[in-house]
User: Fold these one by one.
Assistant:
Number 1:
Amino acid sequence: MGRKILLTAGVAVTLRIEVFGFGSAFAKHDKPNDIDLLIVHSVIDRPSCELAIACKRWLLERIAGADVTMLSRSEVAHFRFIEMTRAFCLGTVRKAQIDRDLMAVLNEVHCNLQFDVLPISKK
Amino acid sequence: MASHSLGFPWPSHYGHFDFFERKMEQHQKVASLVVESGGVYRLVRVGGDTLRVFICECYAFGVAEYLETTSQLDQLNAIIINSAWCGYSPEAKRQCRDEGVGLFRIGEFMGALNRVDYWAYLTEWEEKYFLQQGWQ
């Protein structure tokens, strides 16, 4: 399959999203209700949103109790979401190698969880 | 905070949308409100038009959430963010408005219901912001 390429001002940019973790499941002092994840996509056009949605579904299928929010970079800035929630980056997912990158994110989620009460399913 | 997980649409944190239903019952422009399923209602306004309304609880409702919602639930006339600590982005508001879909918190929806073009209702802050962005 060919790689999807966006051309911005003459520079080729692969379509990608970033996954962040935040909330009680990643904090030592709280009892977790769920595993909060944030997907940050580049812009609000359809390809960018569709990649975010695909990644969200992938994560929901594999992480029990996951709660995934999707926002573009500008939307994240509007909400000051990362500052307010103290979210931290778990990894970048490139559309060209979505499964491999998401597996790496899944591993990071597992490594950073402070509690082991919410099982991660290995699909 | 409200949570949603494997299911779609996002279920109510409290298992119901009583507050929304009560507010709609009290509204002079609402003739009837019928539950469809999973946070979707059919709201008939005095005057006869029917709005398909989706109410949800999520941390932050953005454009991608909107696309996902409409892909799952088909055509909606209004989307209501139920929780006081949750919100929607200006970009999502703009996209919804441009497609004739209202995106509101409950209080805003109460005001918008008085307008024929309910989807175009903006808060004072949004009016200024949209103007600044050249979105009018």
Number 2:
Amino acid sequence: VRSLDPVTLAVLNGRLVQIADEMDATLYRSAFNPIIAEAHDACHGLYHAQTGATLVQGTSGLPIFVGAMAFAVKAVIDKVGRDGGLEAGDTFIFNDPYEGGTHLNDFRLVRPLMRGGRVFAWIASVGHWLDIGGAVPGNYNPKATESFQEGVRIPPVKLARAGAIQQDIVDILAANSRVPQSNWGDLNGQINALDLGERRLHALLDEYGDDTIASALAALSQRAEALMRASIAALPDGTYSYDDFLDNDGVIDRPLRIALDLTIAGDRMMCDFSRSAPPCDGPVNIARSTAVASCYVALKHLFTDVPANAGCLAPIEFIIPDTTLLGVSAPRPVAGYTETILRVIDVIFGAFAKVAPERANGSPFATINALSLAGWREHRRRWIMFCFFGGGLGGNPEGDGLNHSNNPISTATIPPVEILESLYPVMFTQWALRPDSGGPGKHRGGLGAIYEIEALANDGAEVFLIGERGKYPPFGVNGGKSAALNRFIYETDNGEATPPFISKVTDIKIRHGQKVRLETPGGGGFGDPATRETTKVVRDVRLGYVTREAARRDYKVVLLADGSLDAEGTAKARADI
Amino acid sequence: MSERGVIVGVDVGGTFTDLFLLDASSGSFRTAKVPSQRGNEAQGFLNGLNALGGAAGMNSIVHGTTVGTNTLLERRGPKIGVITTRGFRDMLEMRRRDRRRTWGLWGDFVPIADRDLRLEVNERTLADGTIHTPVDLEQVRAAAKLLLEHGAQAVAITFINAYANSDNERRAMTEVRTLWPNAFVTGSHEVLSEIREFERSSTATLNAYLQPVVAAYIGKLEAALTVQSFSGQLHIVQSNGGIMSTATARRLPVRTALSGPAAGVVAGAALAKAAGFDNLITCDLGGTSFDVSVIADAKVAVAAQTTVDFGLVIRTPMIEITTIGAGGGSIASVDRGGLLQVGPESAGSVPGPACYGAGNTRPTLTDAQVVLGRINPERPLGGELKSLDVEASKRAIATDVGEPLGLLVDEAAAAIIRVAEARMAGAIRLVSIERGHEPARFVAMPFGGGGALHVGALIREIGLKCVLVPRFPGITSALGCVLADLRHDTVQTLNLMLDGLDVEALQRRMSTSARELSAVVAATGIPVARIDVVNELDMHYLGQTHTVTVPLRDEAGEGTCISQSLIHQAFEKAYLASFSRLLPGLAIRVVSLRVTAIGRRPAFDFSVFAPERFASLERAQIGKRRVWFDGGWRDTYIWARLALPAGAVIAGPSVLEQPDATTVIEPGLAGRVDVFGNLIVEPAR
């Protein structure tokens, strides 16, 4: 491997990332289901020929996939190692969560980039399909106790042989979904993206030569590792622990501990999750590869200048025993994996707040609230509106947290109300910020939201939800307080109700004209709320972000009847602490 | 007729106000450059006109402005109110649930209208256009009164599904107008009758925010022009590169967001076409940014939407301009991983590069150019500084780049330029190669103060065919104001299936739009050679949410030659241009109709830029100095660019100087002066 000058390296890095970005854009623009087209629940990249390690990722791809794709490509490499018979133009497809997947909805397409009869690298595409069978439309089955109740599991198989699509595979996929046409459109979008990436990469390799590009890829990985080591080395040595909890697994109503002991030793880091709860009956387990991918997401948020490739994981050791819910294998259910990985990310943030309090942020809202409303159209065809929802980010050293953001695992934008209403028989009656949902702090947590949806179809709608943070709120740091809990409310013939598992819902049906309401958490606060500038609290009350009562209770700020500051009352309230 | 008279283009930029005056009757032109006055742009504008002898004798003035953009970026607009569907007042603040960047969770967002000035009323339209709840006009009145009491100067009315049926929104607007003291009432369907509530509402709200500012600015200009006995008409350049009347600009100021840069692209396209090039990439290098735009087959690329700043989305057709933070003021530094970075941090024009001696001690791209002898330190642009401090540049580069990388100061300066050029090349690649344009078919046109310093990189790094440096790179945007066509466009969401499409109804709709838009164009009063109408359909396979734009070849706008099967063919052709696979058998839907009316201006005769007939090479050569190229110092001829005769060929290494720009011809390249005074640089034969 010859060494490249830093300028050429920077140029090639830009070219490679652009190719991945354009693959992302191609899929978004040609996909069918709004979770990819509007919410960008997808990712593309370039992966190492032998190890599957991530070489290049797009900047817009879903962060959690950025971490997980390497394991998916490795699964294909292993299969080729076992079965042989790889040809140019082959494309593998699978959704197996235990082979470097995440959950069954995420379909991976993996294709070798062949140069002179050898695999130079792999290109891959992943996107969230709307439905792949199982007990529940949209596959978020909160009651699943084994994978088979969640949907159809496809191991790595050849979708295309030497460029020819295998109709057998397409037929199997179509027969196992409630919305085959949507899946067919998304599959074609992913093929479009791979075709484009392959074409562009061949052009780049032709232009610079395979050796030059190989050298650049190696150098970029080494650089990420060097930056990560430098970042870790700057932190104080020691072991820092943080524990948090999931509400329940949807099957048994008891909390599940997610525990981290994080050790910094020189330029190395160890993440030990051994004290976490054992594998659970319900669908909030994750595979080891998914756990590692979520650690990668947390670390990238903390060390933003380290490039997104496998090099940044080299200095980090993971201890994730298969006796915990973070290291399960088939057929443990995993549909609600998003909730668990968000908690894994939270405990890293929590431990990091002890390592470097001055750089910490309050916990983000950290639940995706995967809500599906489903019903029937004419001719017994299914409609499924699947959406996940926003909340607040944590207060941080720079200022207040962002209102209504996406989650740390995601860059997904929310589908427009008008798109959802034009596709499904629903009407949104509220789409608003949720007062008092941000964790109080010197820098307040961002606000969560209230979404209220009415069923317009004559036969109403079935409702499914996998959420979290219904019992354990997003935490604050450095004296900041927790955010509001997640709440789900649905209308029945006897008035409003909340589900027994709080954040997980199945077997609920609302009638025509009845509503469901989701109230999502904000982010945790940063710093003691009693030190927040009084002018900011007055403004928060004026704008309705914080109620008058909460201003008094949490911020020790007293307002006069006209909404202005009661300076005397406030001074007294703050002195009394 | 004014085409025989005097037309003046005025581009007010961040640092300078540039003017270009064309006297059509005599075929002569003049230029002027005066400092801009930030916050009082009208004064710079008038100073510029005075530099050309005042407005009295001028027949029309066409203005490219950044007042709109700056108002948005610096949040200098007034208090405004928003009236929304009950339950949706937070939609603007909730955005599309995005965050600032993929990695890192810090940073918040302050919406353009405060939450207590966003009020809700009872009303609701469904996705199919059915009115579910008629608008409660009592509540609308109460809301408008409350907004006025709170001091709102403008109001946007943004109702859910107004694209499908605008009745409720129109009734609310009428009601508000009865008590609103000014004309600043914007309805979302008026600005953009297209699905997606956030994008439509954001565009409408930003329009309301800009209305008082842009109207006051235009009012100030018009009043001052009247005082100067200006009897012609003032026009404004839109983000789509077309001219509009000041009346339209007051009504739809959101369309001025990229006014100035768009004019530059228009000029580039016209200049290149006259010089015989249809495929062009314009490269505008200013103090803080590098703006790139592609013109393929003589067509300017137009984007449907842009994000001005996080959460501030404008959806209206704009010339597609890709901007990266790499300008003359971009700061060079070495990151913790030992990699040299240039930008996006910038020293701007104040305090500016280290060599300005105005307080910045960190090295910039301009400092690197000064150290390597490419910029003449005795003759800085714009005439405000007497000379540049070369030693300050050297110190800054040695400390921040040379020492950390173990390079001598010359080498470090050269490395800064190379990294900056790599970023510029990346931006160009993003808009060209990555979109399937073959670079060898394209010429680059660098303009702005610094673009022509990087001619060599444009050829070497990207493989472009050649580089065309216009006669006056520094006033290109002002020239564009004089050249721009008149233009007006509209979009209407239809949501109709192609199968069974009522083609006659579509044709009637196209004809109506064509008539209305042509009337707007005609009302500007600027003479045009003809009015073209362009019809496009946004289409997709049923189930997709994004669309491809399908041009209908029916320039007359009468819709005489469209049919279902022709639309089908046109859709498949457009789809295959973007994606590798059609989806035969799936239903196809017509989502929106886009109609544009373009008033084509009479052709401009670029021979006004022809070099003087008695110019000579001998007199153009004004000196020699040492300039760094390819790892060493080379004795290099310095030329007075404007004194070169047509047909002259200048071999690299050479530096060409003129008041508004510097051109560097690297070794191995040669520049040829064409009959229009352009400099065409290519690899030497």
